[in-house]
């Protein structure tokens, strides 16, 4: 019976294995990108490295629909928009289970989406500074507002229940909500600006 892994779990060092589908490399280790059974494929040559992968079932990648609530990881912050990667997890997932996604380095396996500045909140849209609302690695709860084009969906965080749900501080520590616009480092107590999602 195959061993089942969870996202973020270290599977093997890159010195002994090659990263296959469903995995990514971080700090010289191969980590799981999705939950599922671990499959190790022997190298075709005796001196080669085995490939470690996690097969993706059809049920793990449902296509987001308009009005669907999704969780996404911020992968790029620009002055007028964010680029995020929609995660293959339920919106009700716990913060601890989502923390591994904040340090992922490979988002090619997921659906990408755009969060435009005008879709961040419902008021004072012209005063929004994207870098004061989100940072790379943040996990955001949002709703899909458009299927967009073949490359990206469009999402919105205008509701109070939408915004950052999981984040790491500049020091690399977990953070907790302090208000609707700030999260605090659980170790240092230092605050950082965010568009914080109201707990649901």
TrEMBL record:
Claim: Cytoplasm is one of the keywords in the record: yes
GO biological process, one term: RNA processing
GO molecular function, one term: RNA binding
SUPFAM superfamilies (UniProt xref): Nucleic acid-binding proteins, Ribosomal L27 protein-like
Keyword Cytoplasm attributed: yes
A Pfam family recorded for this sequence: ECR1_N
Signal peptide annotation: none
GO cellular component terms listed in the entry, alphabetical order: chromatin; cytoplasm; nuclear exosome (RNase complex); nucleolus
Keyword list, A-Z: Cytoplasm, Exosome
Protein name from the UniProt record: S1 motif domain-containing protein
The species this protein was found in: Cyphellophora europaea (strain CBS 101466) (Phialophora europaea)
